[in-house]
Structures are given as structure tokens and as C-alpha cells.
Specification:
Blueprint lengths: L1 H13 L9 H18 L1 H10 L4 H9 L6 E2 H8 L3 H13 L3 E6 L2 E9 L1 H14 L4 H4 L3 H12 L9
Antiparallel strand pairs: 1-3, 2-3
Helix pairs in contact: 4-6, 5-6
């Protein structure tokens, strides 16, 4: 009987330890670190696109915030960008000097200035976003199965709320 118990103890000890599943929080943190690392490691590709068009990261952020011809208030842009009004003004000034955006009075309240893309700004935004959408070589070298799994996983994430 002692031999049987001893044999069981040895067999149990020799078994690989069962791995506990990580918590959702831990797995989400590890996944985010991996995604963030990938985005950072492929930054040079995005920076090259911006450099070709003489844009800064703030410039492209502003160009993508301005949609349609109706325009946005400086206050709404500053809130979206998480900056003060003077910084938003400086960013819009840069775009305006290049003919990519324009300020105009709001038809319902002439004291309010709206910022809208010019035709040149809309065309440049489309061109840059097309170039930014080119997949990095790391994705191109992945198998179709892995890409399909990644695509499906990312599709399940909540999409950002539409801008006001």
C-alpha cells in the first residue's frame, strides 16, 4: 500500500504543473503591450509617410478630425485633441498657412469660427491615409491564417464613438 501511494506521489510530482489561465485583466494587459510594441516598432513607416508630405503627427491628427465641409469649432477640436485652445490655434494656423484648412464664420453665430478642410486638405488627407494603410512588412510576412485570426479578433473590439 505504501508503495502504491509512493508511486502516485512520484507520478503526480512528475506531471507538468497545470497552468492557470491568466485573468482577463492580465491577458488584456499582455495583449495591449504586444499591440503597442508592434505600433511603436513600425513607427518609422508612418513617420516616412508624414515626412514625404511635410506633416507632423499633430497635422495628420488635425486633418483626420476635420471631416465634411460644415467645419468644427476650435473648442471642439481642442477638446478632442486634449489640448488648450492656444495649442489648437497653433495647429490650425499651420494647416491654414499650407492651404489645407480654413477658418470661417458660423452662419448661425458670426462670433464663432469654424475650421474646415479645403479641397487640398481633403485630397492630402486621403492620400496620406491611403499610404498609412499600407501594411508593414511584418504583417505581409504573416500567414493568411494568422492574419485572418488577428483580423477577426480586432473586429470584435469596440469601435470609437463617432465624432460630434
Amino acid at each position: 500500500m505504501v508503495e502504491l501511494e509512493s508511486a502516485r506521489a512520484v507520478a503526480y510530482a512528475a506531471r507538468p504543473m497545470a497552468r492557470r489561465r491568466p485573468s482577463t485583466q492580465a491577458l488584456a494587459a499582455r495583449t495591449w503591450r504586444r499591440l503597442f510594441g508592434f505600433f511603436m516598432s513600425t513607427r518609422a513607416q508612418r513617420d516616412a509617410v508624414l515626412k514625404r508630405h511635410a506633416l507632423t503627427p499633430n497635422d495628420i491628427r488635425a486633418l483626420t478630425s476635420l471631416t465634411g465641409r460644415e467645419g468644427r469649432t476650435m473648442r471642439s477640436l481642442a477638446e478632442e485633441w486634449g489640448c488648450d485652445a492656444s495649442n489648437a490655434t497653433w495647429i490650425v494656423d499651420r494647416l491654414e498657412r499650407r492651404g489645407l484648412a480654413e477658418r470661417r464664420a458660423d452662419a448661425s453665430d458670426r462670433r464663432v469660427k469654424l475650421v474646415a478642410l479645403t479641397r487640398s486638405g481633403a485630397e492630402l488627407r486621403s492620400r496620406v491615409m491611403r499610404e498609412m494603410s499600407e501594411p508593414p512588412r511584418e504583417l505581409l510576412s504573416a500567414s493568411p491564417e494568422k492574419l485572418a485570426a488577428l483580423h477577426a479578433a480586432l473586429a470584435d473590439l469596440t469601435t470609437p464613438a463617432p465624432r460630434k
